[in-house]
Amino acid sequence: MRIKILIRLKSQILEPQGKVIEHSLNNLGFNEFNNIRQGKLIELDLPDNLSKEEKDQKIDSACKKLLVNDIIEEYEVLG
Amino acid sequence: MRIKILIRLKSQILEPQGKVIEHSLNNLGFNEFNNIRQGKLIELDLPDNLSKEEKDQKIDSACKKLLVNDIIEEYEVLG
Question: A–B: how many Cβ contacts below 8 A?
Answer without folding.
Answer: 104
